[in-house]
Amino acid sequence: MAEATPSIAPFTSSAPFDDPNADTILRSSDGVEFRVYRLILSSASPFFKDMFSLPQGRSEDPSIPNIPFSESGRILDRFLRIWYPGATAAGFDNLEQLAEVIQLALLRIYVEKHCVSAFAIACRYVWKDLAKLAAKQSLNLDLPSIFNTSAANPYLRHITGDQFQALLIYHHACGQAACVAGRLLPWTDAEYAWNKCTAASCEACPHYSDIPGRGRVVPRAWIFTYLDEAGAALEQRPGANVENPALLVAAQTKAMSCPNGAYGTPSCRNHGLQDLSKFVTDTYVPAINEAINGVTLQI
Length: 299
Hints:
By secondary structure, the chain is an alpha+beta fold. The protein is built from 12 helices and 6 strands.
């Protein structure tokens, strides 16, 4: 008769993460709740300080914020014990658990502000998922900044030139993909103000567009002012925020210079800013993200 395989008891949180008076719950991927004080974690770790500044979900107790993590309870427990004052450090059952906690520390704490170093460490230890995340985080920098931060980076000595080149190629490819994303969009939607405006003194684009249901239409030029400036910013820094007022202001100024349409005639002044905001949020940003997600990091 075969012996029964002993079952593994489900992991549960223990002191100091079971305090009923705590003001925040961290929930692991397998449903383990860690009750913590946000002031303590914020003081111990800049990562948690930044995280707590964001809107949080709610637990079964509506008065306590609930923050989900993608890590298991065992790994999250070991990770928290590194940072939480007064917590007893936990041992590791094997090197795989240690590696998971190290990756989590890099992911949650260092990758945002030290993406090149995190990329180098991930390449060295063949943590491909972390390397991809660090590479994507590097898109918030332009290439000169990457070079400047890499000049005296001690972690780069542990990776090959091909791996660092792969990061640069990925950054460039993402810039090219994001740059053209706006021009490939259905900005010719007949409902947008820049296509419906008929004000004679509102500057028109020198090129026409064929719009289903409306035929040949000459869009207003200011929409291309925005797309060109946003595209240039994305080419240099693919993670650029295309909702940044600095990018929107020139187009907004031109749209507002359009005279009001006579007798209710559609004009950019009346509806342009609203349509631009909707276009950027609903169409442009998702298209940029899709274009970047289509680029592969070759490591």
